[in-house]
Amino acid sequence: MIRRFVSGLLVSIAGLWAGPALAQDWPAKPVRLISPYPPGGGTDLVSRILQPKLIETLGQQFIVENKTGAGGVVGIDYVAKSPPDGYTILVANNTVVTAPATDKVPYDAIKDFAPVTGIGSTAVALAVHPSFPAKSVAELLAMARSQPGKLSYSSCGNGSAMHLAGELFKYVAKVDILHVPYRGCGPAITDGVAGHVPILFNTITNTGAQARAGKLRVLALASPTRSPVDKSTPVISESAGFEGYDADIWFGVLAPAGTPQPIIAKLHAALEAALKTDDVRSKLEAQLFDVRVTPPDEFGAMIKKDLARWITLVKDAKIKSD
To answer: In CATH terms, is domain 124-240 a member of 3.20.20.70?
Structure first.
């Protein structure tokens, strides 16, 4: 019995020493930043803005890898099932919680991840092709009500924040508009600019750039209040009287559950330092991101709250994947 006690004590002491040692050695080889969407979307943009600063701060290669499919679920699940050693990291948005709120997914949004850092948020925009007749939300609603089931909107994928923004819009406005899901925000924007699906719920980052080029027209944002980095664009709630309408997108970094705490702390510190630099902040703000650095515990609490919110809304609105 004494021998077993001593052996157990030695294992515990070794574990206590192993944590700091892991943090000191990590990263000893290249780290993969998994973006679960194709190039051209907001998550990919965040990944590539942060990448050089992480290389600079941590002295190791950080490689952005686009692992796409199922509206982001393939990449999210890939990280959930990766070894918790700090070498496979997810750059995520709130599809992590909106997807399981709408459908069965192969991961657990709470149990399968270790929160690292909340990065901030950006707005979902309701936009249309320039040839589309509606010049305002009110005009779009009038068209939808006069042509039930005839109009269609694109999203970045089933279960994405953009999908739920569109379905919530239909629910509160009591209109019938067909949902057309894409395999990411980039492909949805491409078809929107081409006029194939003339109504879009997509990020303000993507739609804003195209609107400035005259290729899309932004009608309103799916946010509760006007964006702090784009106060000129109205929000759907004020345009159509839908009080409390809120479908903002948050972005953050997650690691597989079980990743040693010293690695989480070291990665969070590097991300926090990067997000506080004028270079990174100016690049993100230029793409209409509201940058807010959130520590792991607060980020984790936010994820739980957001999951519960969307589960309730999906149930009340009877939202389903297409």
So the answer is: no
Instruction: Report residue 98 as tokens.
Output: 């909106």
Exposed e or buried b per residue across 74-108, where buried means at least 16 C-beta atoms within 10 angstroms of its C-beta: ebbbbbbebebbbbbbbbbbbbbbbbbbbbebebe
Burial 219-247 (b: 16+ CB within 10 A, else e): bbbbbeebbebbeebbbbbbbbebeebbb
The pLDDT mean for the chain works out to 90
**Gap between the Cα atoms of 186 and 183, Å rounded:** 8
Tens digit of pLDDT for each residue in 222-281? 988 887 777 788 999 887 778 778 888 999 999 999 999 999 999 999 999 999 999 999
Instruction: For residues 26 and 13, give the distance between their C-alpha atoms in angstroms, rounded to a whole number.
Output: 20
- Find how far residue 84's CA is from the centre of its chain: 21
Classify residue 250 by its DSSP letter.
Answer: E
**Domain range 2-121+249-317, its CATH number among 3.40.50.1000, 3.40.190.150, 1.10.3110.10, 3.60.110.10:** 3.40.190.150
pTM to 2 decimals? 0.81
Give per-residue pLDDT as tens, 89-137: 999 999 999 999 989 999 999 999 999 999 999 889 999 999 999 999 9
